[in-house]
Amino acid sequence: MFTFTDVNGLQVNLFFEPNHKVSCQHVLVLVKRHDQYLCTIHKKRGVEFPGGKVEKNETVEEAAAREVWEETGVRISTPQWLAYYEVLDKTPFCKTVFIAEAVEEEQVPIDEETIGKLWLTEQELFNQPKLSFYMRDEGMAKILEYAHAKW
Fold it and tell me: Which residues form the Nudix hydrolase domain (predicted)?
């Protein structure tokens, strides 16, 4: 387990070993194409990896693929489990982190939360002036480190 304090001052516990007793209702997906990562541009938070909430009667893998498609128009390979993290907020929540490869890309209408997508190298990603708060914390660096080892 890797524990850190996020930019909002909340404790976050990051796990790279699955715990089948934990049921996360949110997903985060790192999608790669060659040496670039797929990012969404969230209207409020800025540039970040796609993700969102698991809907009723949906698996976390299905949610991962759906969220990437809805936010970016990119179809992905089968999402591979990478990690999960729990944010110890007033109402704690958990996110499952997946990695996947881009398979197909289409134009989709902009949804209510995002205003487009970007394909960025890791260097371009971390030089983004409007990088989302959660993309700037210690946990994201650890997640990317583990993702590199899997790809």
Answer: 20-144
Does the pTM of the predicted model rise above 0.70?
yes
The Cα 79–Cα 112 span in angstroms is: 24
CATH no. for 2-150: 3.90.79.10
- The beta-carbon contacts of 125-133 under 8 Å, at least 24 apart in sequence, are 125/37, 125/39, 125/47, 128/46, 128/47, 130/41, 130/46, 130/47, 131/46, 131/47, 131/48, 132/42, 132/45, 132/46, 132/47, 132/48, 133/6, 133/7, 133/8, 133/45, 133/46
Domain segments of the chain as ranges: 2-150
